[in-house]
Amino acid sequence: MAKAVKEAEKNQSSMSEFEKLLSESFDYNFKVADVVNGTVVRIEKNGVLVDIGSKAEAIVPLRELSNVPFDGAESIIAVGEKKEFYILKEEDEDGQITLSLKRVSHARNWLKLDDLRQKNETITAKVFSLVKGGVVVEVFGLRGFVPASQLRTGTPHEGLIGQEIPVKILETDPKRNKLILSQRQALAEERERVVVEVISKLDVDQIVEGEVVRIADFGAFIDINGVDGLLPISEISWQRVKHPSSVLTLGQKLEVKILKIDNELNRISLSLKRMEENPWVKIEDKFTEGQIIKGIVNKITSFGAFIDIFPGVEALLPVAEMSDRQINPFEFLSIGQEIEVVIKRFTPQEHRIGLSLKDLNRPKQTESNASEDSSEQLAEVAE
Questions:
Q1: 111 in Cβ contact with 172 (< 8 Å)
Q2: What domain range includes position 82?
Q3: Are residues 123 and 180 in the same domain?
Q4: For residue 355, which of 43, 224, 333, 341 is within the disulfide window of CB 3.0 to 4.6 Å?
Q5: What is the pLDDT of residues 49-81, one digit of tens each?
């Protein structure tokens, strides 16, 4: 009896050891997007069964064998063949894992991208579509996203489609098929490298060709050989510009003149309007004091109105010169209105022209008070 008990205990001990070894043989931690080695054990109608060391044989659906059309799984893979497989889905309730053969290269590219991200390398991506909030690009056969905030332009535009742009990798997540990139970070690094060299070759008053890469309320940034120069709104046109976007477009190529170079801060100031002749010089022999002319109301303020009398030239019509009675200029005039006025003061060298509306039907005479008020207001505006 004692012998039988000992024999049973020995058998149980052996069984426990076997179960432990068996459990250890299936101790795996396969995750989606992992690449594993496997051996093809069987080809069936719905796919290929592969031994990867899991509790159950993993399956490769036929559609996951290749990216190109094929006649039968046997033309792609053979029983007994050892290959690398991409884990598409973790094990189901039956313990079976879904694999992909065609996505192995993609998985390798994800690993490559993550390695490049850790090394902070700059890569090239091709823009192929615009979407809400940014652009979609292709890199290493994978789709990536560059948010608008990470674009050099700050705004997606049609001119980007088809372009190859330098980018830095911000985030890689193969499980969620998420690849986030930044053009601005790549260009910032490049700018630090070339800015001194580029600026050293530029001179004040030099005419250079550039591309509009960003538009803001205060002006636009123009790419000059890889370095951004600022084109202030006041230097876009001789005429009043409400917003730079009303004159310029992203990706637009244009010639500009260099106004100023700050070698300490490595900044360039540009002008577009100075590519044309100064209109104030053009009008010196076109107008005289006492001349009656027509103009368009361009802007109305509490102290008067600015009248467009020549392309690029505005003259001031002070409130005191609008009427003999007290009026509200905002109610008296309207933007875009054409009016007839008389030139009361003409000093184009100082970029000052004073107008009068009330003197149109009045005999020419000296009106010191009104004239002084008009001159003072004109001087204040010019300053």
A1: no
A2: 35-102
A3: yes
A4: 341
A5: 999 988 889 999 999 998 777 888 998 899 999
